[in-house]
Design goal:
Blueprint lengths: L1 H25 L4 H16 L3 H5 L7 E2 L7 E2 L1 H19 L11
Antiparallel strand pairs: 1-2
Length: 103
């Protein structure tokens, strides 16, 4: 009886090891591809290329900006990005609140 249990245990261990080895060989390594896409997105963000980054937005994207309202949806995210870029330009021009004197 103990010999049979030992044999079954060995077979189970051998089967588990073989499955693990086979699975590890069949699984592709996506690390390099993910790093490449990440580098492209970082470059696009630094170049302020909205057209490139919006391709990677999901239709139901949700953005939670610091101290701001939740942004839901791809179109709203694109508009918020454009609005943010204009606000940065106004801040750079010396109008931090986005107000322009009309007088």
């Amino acid at each position: 009886m103990k010999k049979n249990l030992r044999n079954y245990g060995f077979l189970l261990l051998l089967f588990t090891a073989l499955v693990s080895v086979c699975y590890a060989q069949d699984t592709p390594d996506y690390t390099a591809q993910i790093e490449k896409i990440n580098d492209l997105l970082i470059k696009a963000e630094m170049d302020q290329d909205i057209v490139f980054t919006e391709k990677y937005y999901a239709d139901d994207i949700i953005i939670l900006p610091n101290m701001g309202a939740m942004i839901k949806g791809k179109e709203a995210a694109i508009e918020a990005e454009k609005e943010g870029r204009q606000r940065e330009i106004l801040n750079h021009l010396g109008d931090p609140d986005g107000w322009r004197s009309k007088g």
